[in-house]
Automatic annotation (TrEMBL):
A single BP term in Gene Ontology: L-leucine catabolic process
Pfam family, one: HMGL-like
Family according to the record: Belongs to the HMG-CoA lyase family.
Keywords on record: Lyase, Metal-binding
InterPro entries, per database record: Aldolase_TIM, HMGL, PYR_CT
Name of the protein described by the UniProt record: Hydroxymethylglutaryl-CoA lyase
Organism phylogeny: Bacteria, Bacillati, Actinomycetota, Actinomycetes, Propionibacteriales
Keyword flag Metal-binding: yes
PROSITE patterns: PYR_CT
One Gene Ontology molecular-function label: metal ion binding
UniProt domain Pyruvate carboxyltransferase: residue ranges: 6-277
Length: 302
């Protein structure tokens, strides 16, 4: 059977806003995060401590986290943030943050475009960062990008993804988020990848799945993940998102679509759908474009 309970890992403020052309004011971002927490989302990834020239949309990461800490106290320190390297970790530790995520590429081309590293040298960048985070009591998630297909290299072999994921776990990451960065995955590939990790000794409870919805397969892929025993799913309120360094990446699976789907299966998630729709609709007003999510469009009118 399917798992009775799922954790939704909200990435809208980070994966969503990193790819929006509009520069969103810091206080609007803070209000978005607060609304998502109030909607019952248990984990809200807030921002990235990456190079501000690489992702100008999130250049205000420190101001955002300082503001959130003033507003909601210690809860803000449990919001995960991306850190690619030691410099990013320093910035996160200065603010007392307790959850970070590194992000690796499963392919050579995307390692170059997203991290300015090779498939091999990305690990030299992560190794001291993850070790120091763990030694500081900070919990580290490891993302793997381009797990199913890469716009420059085509389909990505399961063994190649598993090897990258294993190395992140061996460095000290507690969970892997397997990213379909450009939204090309199909359910058969999801099943094969989770089985590939199981064969390498990585159980489904250490995995999360991160779908983008370019080909409209994201929910079908979640279903395949549920059948394989994965219980953490990344999603973005309103379906915001993409990746500035992956051409053809579109929005993430919308949180609202995921919530609607899980509710229909009787799977517990703890999220107030109406409150997420309201937050997305409010954010769409700031971004000047409507949400691509069918569930948001349907419910916003009702
Ligand atoms: P680099 O140019 O190789 O950096 O970029 P470097 O290590 O050579 O350092 C150059 C300068 O940058 C130095 O300054 C550093 O201090 C500074 P200088 O000494 O010259 O004055 N620097 C920094 N400053 C602030 N914060 C930092 C930082 N690091 C270095 N963290 C780097 C390498 C990794 C920094 C760069 O490539 C980068 O920032 N990349 C981030 C790209 C990104 O954010 N992409 C989107 C997130 S991934 C994603 O969306 C996929 C995901 O959703 C899953 C999926 O869908 O698959 C997670
Ligand atoms: Mg993503």
């Amino acid at each position: 059977g399917l798992p009775p309970k799922v954790t939704i890992y909200e990435v809208g403020p980070r994966d969503g806003l990193q790819n929006e052309q509009a520069l969103v004011p810091t206080e609007v971002k803070a209000a978005f995060v607060r609304r998502l927490l109030a909607a019952g989302l248990p984990i809200v990834e807030a921002t990235s401590f990456v190079h501000p020239k690489w992702v100008p949309q999130l250049a205000d990461a420190a101001e955002l986290m300082t503001g959130l800490t003033a507003e909601i106290g210690d809860t803000a320190r449990d919001l995960p943030v991306l850190v690619p390297n030691d410099r990013g970790l320093d910035r996160a530790l200065e603010l007392g943050l307790r959850h970070v995520a590194v992000f690796a590429s499963a392919t050579e081309t995307f390692a170059a475009k997203n991290l300015n590293r090779t498939l091999e040298t990305q690990f030299a960048m992560f190794e001291p960062t993850v070790a120091r985070a763990v030694a500081s009591g900070v919990d580290v998630r490891g993302y793997v990008s381009m797990c199913f297909g890469d716009p420059w290299e085509g389909p990505v072999p399961v063994d190649q993804v598993v090897a990258v994921g294993r190395r992140l776990l061996d460095l000290g990451c507690h969970q892997l988020s397997l990213g379909d960065t450009i939204g090309v995955a199909t359910a058969g590939q999801v099943r094969a990848l989770v089985a590939g990790f199981a064969a390498a000794g990585v159980a489904a409870d250490r995995l999360a799945l991160h779908f983008h919805d370019t080909y409209g397969q994201a929910l079908t892929n979640v279903h395949a993940g549920l059948q394989a025993g994965v219980t953490t799913y990344d999603a973005s309120a309103g379906g915001l998102g993409g990746c500035p360094y992956a051409k053809s990446a579109t929005g993430n699976l919308a949180t609202e679509d995921l919530v609607w789907f899980l509710t229909g299966l009787g799977i517990e998630h703890g999220v107030d759908l109406r409150a997420v729709v309201d937050a997305s609709t409010w954010m769409a007003g700031h971004l000047g474009r409507p949400s691509p999510s069918a569930v948001v469009r349907a419910l916003a009118q009702s």
